[in-house]
Design the sequence.
C-alpha cells in the first residue's frame, strides 16, 4: 500500500533532499551494511512473546467474543476539518483511497490512511449525525 505524505511533509523532504542529495548506490550499500552490523551487535535477542490471554467479553450464538483492547484505545476523529478542491489535490495522491458519504447536498470523504489510526469518524453530514467506521 502506498502512503502519501501531507504536502507540508513532502515540502520538507524535498528541501532536505535538495540540500543533501541522495546517496550513490555504493554509499547506500555501505551505509546499509554498517547499520545492519551495528544493529546485530547492539540489538538484544528477541524474547518470547509474553501476552496475557484475552478476556472473554461474552458468548453470542456459540461464538466467543474477546476483549483485546481497552476502551478508547483507538481514538475517534470527533471534529474533522476538511479541505476543498486544489487544497485537497495538493495533499493527496490521485491513487489515495478514500471513504466518503453524501447526504442531502453535502458530501465528505476521509483518507483511509488517516482512518488506519482512528477507525471511526463522528461527524454531521447533510444535517445528520453520523459515525463512519473503517
Sequence:
Amino acid at each position: 500500500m502506498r502512503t502519501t505524505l501531507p504536502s507540508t511533509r513532502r515540502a520538507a523532504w524535498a528541501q532536505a533532499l535538495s540540500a543533501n542529495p541522495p546517496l550513490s548506490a555504493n554509499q547506500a550499500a555501505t551505509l546499509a551494511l554498517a547499520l545492519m552490523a551495528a544493529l546485530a551487535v547492539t540489538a538484544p535477542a528477541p524474547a518470547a512473546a509474553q501476552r496475557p490471554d484475552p478476556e472473554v467479553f461474552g458468548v453470542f450464538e456459540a461464538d466467543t467474543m474477546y476483549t483485546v483492547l481497552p476502551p478508547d484505545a483507538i481514538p475517534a476523529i470527533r471534529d474533522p476539518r476538511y479541505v476543498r478542491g486544489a487544497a485537497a489535490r495538493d495533499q493527496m495522491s490521485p491513487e489515495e483511497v478514500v471513504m466518503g458519504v453524501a447526504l442531502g447536498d453535502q458530501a465528505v470523504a476521509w483518507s483511509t490512511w488517516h482512518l488506519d489510526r482512528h477507525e471511526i469518524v463522528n461527524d454531521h453530514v447533510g444535517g445528520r449525525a453520523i459515525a463512519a467506521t473503517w
